[in-house]
Amino acid sequence: MYFAAKMNLLAANTQERMLYSMFAADEAVHFHWLCSYVPAALLTAEHPEPFLALLHDVLCQEGKDTLIYIVQVLLEGWGLQHYHALAHDCQEAGLTAIFKHIIRDEARHHASGLVLCRAQPLSAPQVSHMVELLQRLFFMVQVGPQTVVSIIEHVKGHLSLTQKTTIFAELECESDTAQKLEILQSCLGATPPAKPLLAALHERGTLRPYSALECARVSSGLC
């Protein structure tokens, strides 16, 4: 909702303003639908998990062109895969129907982002800045399900490096992360600056999933 409101203000013309006004309405409806399935405490949490904190910083600080790439192209494209998985595995008919409706809306958001980014290609300095942002974002994916392991540790008490390594391995973190990184690369691959972006990320090792031990070291503050 914040993204749609900001993009409405940054719109270059009436058509873009109408587009993001419709997005805002979609996202408000999605939020309303999902609220009944989420504990109220999570909706008002003052300290969001790291990925959401990073996304908040991006939304507050970045300009229009960067937000189109990060939010509409990359995250909305990734989100489509996530909602498809949720809809497939959900055991509650009402929630399944909600996920399927969200998928239809998010597909439009993502597709319009691809159209806009092709019409407004990034400059060389913008590409360099995008690489820095993507490295931070991809790192959150590379290090595996850190939140899951932190919740386990909160419930069970302190976990050793060996115990954490075992948990990450049992969660199949490396193969799961590799799949997520493939999806993100695929989303970027549909944009004009795909080659320089992906080449820079590959050179920095940003597209490599972390092993269970590496994930455990990050969790233990050793990396």
Count of discrete domains: 2
Please identify, by name, the CATH architecture of the largest domain.
Answer: Up-down Bundle
Predict the CATH topology of the largest domain.
Ferritin
Mean pLDDT: 92
How many strands appear in the DSSP assignment? 0
Describe what you observe in this structure:
- With 223 residues, the chain is mainly alpha-helical.
- The chain has 2 domains: 1-120, Ferritin (Up-down Bundle); 124-223, no CATH class.
- It has helices spanning 2-10, 14-35, 40-43, 50-61, 64-89, 93-119, 124-142, 146-156, 161-170, 173-189, 194-203, 212-219.
- Helix 4 (50-61) runs antiparallel to helix 7 (124-142).
Task: Jot down its keywords.
single chain, 223 residues, mainly alpha, Ferritin, 2 domains, 12 helices, 78% helix, 0% strand
